[in-house]
Target: UDP-N-acetylmuramoylalanine--D-glutamate ligase
Amino acid sequence: MRLVVLGGGESGVGTAILGKKKGYDVFVSDFGKIKENYREVLSNNGIAWEDEKHTEALIMNADVVMKSPGIPDKAPIVKKLKDATIPVISEIEFAAPFTEAITIGITGSNGKTTTTLLTYHLLKQANLNVGLAGNIGKSFAWQVAENKHDVYVLELSSFQLDGISTYKPHIAIITNISPDHLDRYNYDYNLYIDAKFRITMNQTASDYLIIDADDEAISNWLQKHTIKATTIPFSLTKQLDFGGSVDANNMNINLNQDIFTMPIHQLALEGKHNVKNAMAATTVAQLMKIRKETIRESLTNFQGAEHRLEKVLKIQNVQYINDSKATNVNATFFALDSMTTPTVWIVGGVDKGNDYDELMPLVREKVRGIICLGVDNKKLVEKFENVVEVLVETTSMNEAVKIANKIAEKGDTVLLSPACASFDLFENYEDRGRQFKQAVQNL
Model:
């Protein structure tokens, strides 16, 4: 069997290693440049590879192709493979049959990284032999090749779910759905929603789907489609007899009279959206029969995700917060919503078809000044220049932070929450977040 891997990054190299171990004839092809450390791994494992090109003769003879999530379906080589009816699958689909482990799959437009890390933390603190993979950490296929874990917590993007046909998680979470990556779905929101729900398409009655009952897109989809899994809702607005809800001070989760309750103020993570993330992760922990004492302790000592509402420093009584991972409007909505002081907001980058209208009430209420950080800020300027006292355009992080420092007054917050992708000025959102932290430290 010939396995061709498109993309020589983390998921590609992991898949190649697993494929080789399982006796496939493996070839890795990357249209960009493969990083030095990955080249070394491939060569050390005797795996053939090429970069900066796709040689069709070496690709079109594949029995199966694993496509890295970053490569769009409209890439010419992917179109050719599909026309030739050669199966093109994701790393998750390729690796899943080679492990007996239970998998917990987590998707959503926002909150999925925090929920994934929190779920992993809860299971790890309970001494389960648990791995963390998917869109985060070491690739799932690589860990399966090393036969590492009994349970995996997988953060799954819509692109990874596009490439599954038989994979099913035992427990799935959809944290929420809001418009994102629409450029990859022909600007059709419904196609993107359908992609998220692929997480449950192979689930059976003995599996679980945990969902946000307050989310309009999720509720609408469920009204029109039937699913087999046991659905467990959570909500901040409704009292549920089954699932997660809140009263005045507590978060409560009721699974058929197995009730977990905890004061919200004890949660390590702040903000309403994080109560939801905690409800989702706690539901998993209960399904996995973890002691309530352990769950409580883990929820109080969890350290959040880097680049997600991460407090950097307080300088002259101004708090600097790095929310570089907010690459869409909905994520930035959560960030602005959780601000309790006047805010200087750093925003901008590569706009994925954003509609900024939903931010307008929050900007009017909370934002003192806006610093646009991007190559093309026209849309932001037109939308907000008459709404805030100060709006400045910049193209460097150092400059943005220096200007923020000038605009901010004692007791304010400076918030980097870009609502956009980072590729115009930075390598990725992590690079953007690190540059922000460095610039703040240099003040």
User: Anything to note?
Assistant: The radius of gyration is 22 Å. The chain has 17 helices and 20 strands. The CA atoms of residues 168 and 272 lie 30 Å apart. The chain has a mean pLDDT of 94.
